[in-house]
Design goal:
It comes from Lacticaseibacillus brantae DSM 23927. GO terms for molecular function: magnesium ion binding; phosphatase activity. The protein is 35% helix and 23% strand. By secondary structure, it is an alpha/beta fold. It folds into two domains: 5-79 and 195-266, 3-Layer(aba) Sandwich (Rossmann fold), CATH 3.40.50.1000; 84-191, Hypothetical Protein, Haloacid Dehalogenase-like Hydrolase, Chain: A, domain 2 (2-Layer Sandwich), CATH 3.30.1240. The two termini are 13 Å apart.
Length: 269
């Protein structure tokens, strides 16, 4: 059988509780990997957290992290970086609006302002107990010195929709960074002209696996681009309506092993 490129979002799609992949899903994916298909998790999480989810599936499972800014290929990692101009713009805007911004390399979180307790809790919400994340508070003036490793970031506006909307407007006007959101209280900061779809297209080109043999699962707005790059696009039962409208297929929810059920039927396992 010609190999497929199988790509799954994590939260609300592959994972059942943000930290674990169910045993039935692991079993199906391991079977397909053993048959020669390639499997990637695709998430907004930093690389080290995405890698933890992939390892739950298989040591041969691979990673698209940071909303497409970094991904595995050929035994190494491909990186797209936010860049110094984007970092400087984000600092300027968040200083003006008072929201907290966090910046990510593959294994380190950087921040410049003291976080509120709510924000600090959110920083570690998806971190498993067995994964160590370096967290560094640095002076704002030093942020750009890490521009050669920072791939992405996010801004939190918990209980502050007005501040979040203003921040989004100002960043969009500056046009230095690609903006997305994984839920209603954040802004995802991604390198310009990069998203999960970018990684999918680059992997299709590098692997020689066509869109017709690409299967993508997703549930949120930041999955829509990569769903449109797949010949087999699958919305979870718990997906937002816009995702269901874009996807060619629909499966059950993440809590009902939707990824495993679709793949079992599709490959006649």
């Amino acid at each position: 059988m010609e190999p497929y490129l199988i790509i799954s979002d994590v939260d609300g799609t592959l994972s059942i509780d943000h930290k674990h992949v169910s045993a039935p899903t692991v079993k199906v994916l391991q079977t397909l990997i053993a048959q020669g298909h390639q499997f990637y998790v695709a998430t907004g999480r930093m690389y080290v957290l995405a890698e933890d989810m992939a390892k739950q599936v298989s040591d041969k499972a691979q990673v698209i992290a940071s909303n497409g800014a970094v991904y595995d290929f050929g035994g190494g990692r491909i990186h797209h970086l936010l860049g110094a101009p984007a970092l400087q713009q984000v600092l300027q805007v968040t200083n003006q609006t008072g929201l907290a911004a966090f910046y990510f390399s593959d294994d380190t979180i950087y921040y410049t302002q003291d976080p509120t307790p709510e924000v600090e809790k959110a920083m570690y919400a998806f971190a498993p107990d067995d994964v160590t994340i370096a967290v560094q508070q640095i002076p704002a003036a030093e942020l750009v010195t890490h521009a050669d490793t920072i791939t992405n970031g996010f801004i939190l506006g918990i209980n502050n929709p007005e501040g979040l909307a203003k921040t989004m407007m100002l960043l969009a006007a500056g046009n230095f960074v690609h903006l997305s959101a994984s839920n209603h209280d954040n802004i995802e900061l991604i390198p310009k002209q990069v998203d999960k779809a970018t990684a999918v297209k680059e992997l299709q080109a590098k692997t020689g696996i066509s869109a017709a043999h690409t299967i993508v699962f997703g549930d949120g707005m930041n999955d829509m681009g990569m769903l449109q790059e797949a010949g087999v696009s699958v919305a979870m039962g718990n997906a937002v309506d816009a995702v269901k409208d874009v996807a060619r297929y629909q499966t059950t929810s993440n809590l009902d092993d939707g990824v495993a059920k679709f793949l079992t039927d599709y490959f006649n396992l």
